[in-house]
# Entry
Amino acid sequence: MSYDSQPPTSPSSPSSSPSPRRFGRGNVTVAVAALVPTALAGWLAWQAMSGPGDSDPPKVVPLPGQSQAQSQSRSASSPADAKPSAPTTPPAATASPSKTQEQGKPVANPTATGPLAGKVVVVDPGHNPGNFRHTREISRLVDVGTHRKECDTTGTSTNGGYTEASFTLDVSRRLRTLLEQQGATVKLVQNEDRPYGPCVDERARIGNEAKADAVVSVHADGSAVGNRGFHVILPALVKGGAADTSKIVGPSRDLGTRLAGKFVQATGSAPSNYVGGGTGLVVRKDLGGLNLSTVPKVFIECGNMRDPKDAALLTDGSWRQKAAQGIADGIGSYLNG
Ligand SMILES: [Zn+2]
# Structure
């Protein structure tokens, strides 16, 4: 769930007609084939609209029979329904040795080989498993250029308790390995190596200071049962205070469209059936992590943790490996043009 907002408004937003469409394998193939042109159409539509809708307070959906407060403070360590994953668990949480670092900023590794050699990619695992222990710190307001908002949120979880914060770290670590295997220099914004956060403004700053060639923020949504599928969030054209996305709107759209297409190919998952009008693309102007970015950046909501069918995928390690592969392929396609 991307920080503090209702799902974005769009011509086919759920507020008007949440009609969960089911995609069988045949349809997925159709969707794959149709995605790119539709995504392009979606782009143009959204570019025209330049980002609908302002934000609402963060939405954490309480577990059945649990109060809002209880769900906020639910522990990150009870992945009751997380199936033992095959083929591999993500690599250990050790910081990947970027051979050359300057003051903590990753610099492209001169000895790296592979199609992404010389490229710097920043991967942002959404939320942090420790956020629920620091509710006062994460509720502190930070400046995101056009407005002020919470430093961070706890994120959502499946009904079985598998948390979004665990999901995003798992997929991000797999993604880092895949990108490094292609020679990229990769920096994780957080790797469970800090008690909470970072705040949304610092998350943008880390990508900016790394002069990243691409940044992807990994999330999973918390929406109504029946709302299924993934969506990629693109920055709207925003100018205000420290925010100016005029230089990144175009390249981020290119990154996001390729990522959406490759995600469908790698996972077989369909684009969201509740936002984006079937294109898998959504433009937003309320996310600090996008508004403050000066490098190409998108968010991906990999699925809906609150839908049992999507949750079955999100809690499966082999599906998470495919998700990481789809994101890596999208980044690779963008960086190699
Ligand atoms: Zn999230």
Remarks:
- The chain has one domain: 37-91+117-335.
- The first strand starts at residue 101 and ends at 102.
